[in-house]
UniProtKB/TrEMBL annotation:
This is Histone-binding protein RBBP4-like N-terminal domain-containing protein. Keywords: Repeat, WD repeat. Residues 1-16 have a biased composition (Basic residues). It comes from Sorghum bicolor (Sorghum). WD repeats lie at residues 249-291, 339-381. Residues 1-31, 98-132 are annotated as: Disordered. SUPFAM superfamilies: WD40 repeat-like. GO terms for biological process: ribosome biogenesis. Residues 19-31 have a biased composition (Low complexity). PANTHER family: GLUTAMATE-RICH WD REPEAT-CONTAINING PROTEIN 1. Pfam families: CAF1C_H4-bd (PF12265), WD40 (PF00400). GO terms for cellular component: nucleolus. Residues 107-127 have a biased composition (Acidic residues).
Length: 459
């Protein structure tokens, strides 16, 4: 799969209404019957990868205004111009306002923030007090950033996978602290690119890669890195650093595209590959996979392990399809759902951290979709809604009942993340910047993981 940015569940429910959305900076479809808050911003260069940084503002919060912290890695036109962007987006009020004109994506240090809420109501008056505030600081990074991840237990510790073939770990505590203490951005602060030495650099890979993952269960933390040369390295924490195991995990016959630790088993992880397989590994039993299955007919680009229903794993394919499997039946018929809605490669997939049946997907077809896999078909409601949709948007006739929300308007979408502490908030990155979405049609009820049933679906 080409990763570079190109330049120049509970009791089964009846199907809810799908809510199409468009980015405020580039409307693509008419607004649907449900409201959606959309906020757009940029940090200069386009970003292939970012991560939400866990904060201390509350484990679960739903009241506006919101504040979020994040880290992102750039894809600049020259290797020497790249950086890690550490940002705080505050005063997210959720109120409709006129967008601030966005700057071109040309590597300038100017940042932009704009937002829109699709609503049947009247526009709210624009004023300075309701505008979101973007604080941005930059740390120089050698080469483009293919993937960046913040450690859950120590959010100031971040790892980057660089296009140079180096994996680096950074301590960003001083920068995050300064963002937390600052109410307003200092003049021209985002013009400055700080020089900082990483706390760990590993150059043992023979090719670049696109996936890293910190263990959610091991303080320290266990760390996995994979590359396009079929290699998977394990980093084990020491009191002051990490030891990188030189003995590779071997089992895939092509590039390892993504990997993820189990949310419940500290020694277990999953990986996916361009060979079309998903493998499950146990680091206690050796360097070969415990189980490998043929999951897709083409490259498996991304996977996501459900943190609320750990038996479920989702995978996205280069042919635009994505699937959900039940790991309890992995050696039998484990396929729970398979969708072929998207027309181009799946670039990101992630289960909601607050609703075990909800899944978000991005694709190279410039769409971000949200799915509720607990929904089942209701012919009468579906026919009524399809008729209304035809009046408001040119929706296809064969929409799956599990498709809850469609967001269009971003170009060349690359990665998405649900905010782990703000239910229903999704952040996505694309060639034309970031969007923050909060669809009102997404159920923010936080269920028990034992109360969720995923409804099966045919292609």
């Amino acid at each position: 799969m080409g990763r570079k940015i190109k330049r120049k569940a509970g009791v089964k429910k009846q199907a809810k209404r799908i809510a199409p959305s468009s980015s405020s900076s580039n409307p693509a479809v008419a607004s649907g019957p449900a409201k959606c808050f959309v906020l757009g911003f940029g940090i200069g260069w386009s970003c292939l990868s970012f991560d939400v940084v866990h904060d201390q503002l509350g484990l679960v919060r739903s009241e506006f205004p919101h504040t979020l912290y994040g880290v992102a890695g750039t894809q600049a036109d020259k290797a020497s111009r790249n950086y890690i962007g550490i940002f705080k987006l505050s005063n997210i009020s959720g109120k409709k306002r006129e967008p601030i004109p966005s700057s071109a994506i040309d590597g300038d240090s100017d940042t932009d923030v704009d937002s829109e809420s699709s609503s049947d109501g009247e526009d709210e008056e624009t004023n300075e007090d309701t505008k979101p505030i973007l604080h941005l600081k930059k740390v120089a990074h050698a080469g483009c950033v293919n993937r960046i991840r913040s450690m859950t237990q120590k959010p100031h510790i971040c790892a980057t996978w660089g296009a140079t073939g180096h994996v680096q770990v950074w301590d960003l505590s001083s920068i995050l602290n300064s963002l937390a203490e600052s109410a307003t951005p200092a003049p021209k602060e985002d013009d400055v690119i700080h020089r900082q030495t990483p706390v760990k650099v590993f150059s043992g890979h023979k090719a670049e890669g696109y996936a890293v993952d910190w263990s959610p269960l091991v303080t320290g933390s266990l760390f996995l890195v994979c590359d396009c040369n079929k290699s998977i390295h394990l980093w084990e924490p020491t009191p002051s650093n990490w030891n990188v195991d030189v003995n590779l995990f071997v089992g895939h016959s092509a590039s390892v595209e993504d990997l993820q630790w189990s949310p419940t088993e500290a020694d277990v992880f999953a990986s996916c590959s361009a060979d079309g397989t998903i493998s499950i590994w146990d680091i206690r039993t050796g360097k070969e996979p415990c189980i490998s299955i043929k999951a897709h007919k083409a490259d498996v680009n991304v996977i996501s392990w459900n943190r609320l229903a750990s038996r479920m794993i989702a995978s996205g394919c280069d042919d635009g399809s994505f699937s959900v499997r039940d790991l309890r039946f992995i050696q039998e018929d484990s396929l729970v759902a398979h969708f072929e809605y998207h027309k181009k490669a799946i670039t990101s997939i992630e289960w909601s951290p607050h609703e075990a049946s909800s899944l978000a997907v991005t694709s190279e077809d410039h769409q971000l979709t949200i799915w509720d896999l607990s929904l089942e078909r209701d012919a009468e409601e579906e026919a009524e809604f399809r008729a209304k949709m035809k009046e408001q948007a040119n929706a296809p006739e064969d929409l799956p009942p599990q498709l809850l929300f469609v967001h269009q308007g971003q170009r060349d979408l690359k990665e998405l993340h649900w905010h782990p502490q703000i239910p229903s908030m999704i952040i996505s990155t694309a060639i034309d910047g970031f969007n923050v979405l909060m669809p009102s049609s997404i159920d923010t009820t936080i269920p028990s993981s034992t109360d969720t049933t995923v409804a099966s679906s045919e292609p």
